[in-house]
Amino acid sequence: MSRLRVAFGKGLRALVGLLLLLLGLCGFFALPASYTTYPVVPPKEGEPRWIRGAFHVHTTRSDGRGSPLDVVLAAKAAGLDFVLLTDHNDFTPPAPTWGEGVLLIPGVEISTSSGHLVAFGMERPLEGMTRWMPAADAVKAVEAAGGMTVLAHPVQKKNPWTDEPTAREAKGFELYSADTFFRHAMRNPVSRLLPAVGAYLANPMHGVMVLVAPEPEPGARFMELSQEQPKRSFCAHDAHGLPSYESVFSSLAMYLPPEQLPAPLPKDAKEAAALVTRALRGGSALCSFRALGEPEGFALEGVDPEQREARVGDVLKVRLPGLPDVDTVRVQVWGEGRLGEDGTSVELTGEGLVRVEVWAKGPGRFFGSEWRPWIVPNPVRVLPRTPGI
Hints:
Blueprint: H1 2-33, E1 51-57, H2 68-77, E2 82-85, E3 97-99, E4 102-112, E5 115-120, H3 135-144, E6 148-151, H4 164-169, E7 172-177, H5 178-186, H6 189-202, H7 204-211, H8 216-225, E8 232-236, H9 245-251, E9 253-256, H10 269-281, E10 286-288, E11 299-301, E12 309-311, E13 315-319, E14 329-335, E15 337-339, E16 345-348, E17 352-363, E18 369-376, E19 380-383
Parallel strand pairs: 1-2, 2-4, 6-7, 7-8, 12-19
Antiparallel strand pairs: 1-9, 3-4, 4-5, 5-6, 9-10, 10-18, 11-13, 13-16, 14-17, 15-16, 17-18, 17-19
């Protein structure tokens, strides 16, 4: 018995020591987080306000930690105009409604045999829906109801999208996902999770931004699937309430430029929801990691904002928003484009697809800084040069 007590005592001391070590490490990262400031890029006065909202949010109707009212209050506190609710397999969601000045728009995340599919904008009820139904049947059912299909966290280690034909048929793709960032941190507890937890204790928004560590696989898969027909890109909150809804909503959002959807939204919830979902399906909707700065004033000049098409040899011009510092903002280009020496022009070099993003240097995990995506517009399809030109 005495040996058992000794062993138990040693185990308890080891556990306490480990907990104290973890708390110490969290405190190590919490200290610099308390001094971080956002936004990185200050806003420019006089720019028209863009409609902004959260895409892919879960409540207690499935596996979220908060009720729809909790989500509404968090969205209001974060300055959002709408929230697209996508509870798992919620095939009869409530109608659009206003709450505390925030528009709640119904959608659903469907668990198929090949992965998860976000659907929204349905004009008619979904019919014949069941959990783990074949992916092709789910895509057809959403399209038959007039909705849009978006591949949810398609290359995530947990629940990736595995069916190739429907991967090409789906109209949208979650290029960045807060949930995927969180799961990536879980696989890297020392280098990613602990810094994020420590930062979150002192500054919840910074804790979320520390999680933002893009990997190459989603972008490469997105470009591959968009060659035949460019997909719409989305930044997904995939919010479940941990981290808090407000901290995630304050860190990133989907934005609808005023030329596509001017503020304010109509008072009729059904009419407003129809306008928002139509805009999200359009080409000029974009994502911004708004903790780094608001995107009002951004433009990708030289391309039709809705069709998202240009031609080989064209030069696109990135108009940066706010009051950026040249040392903290840069333009990133993938695909058939080449960044000019001025750092804001993109020459289209071949037929296919070009993806242009603006990145900003935000506060790092400790002192210092890290490059992170800031503004993520939809890709541009590059057509052959016009004959004779």
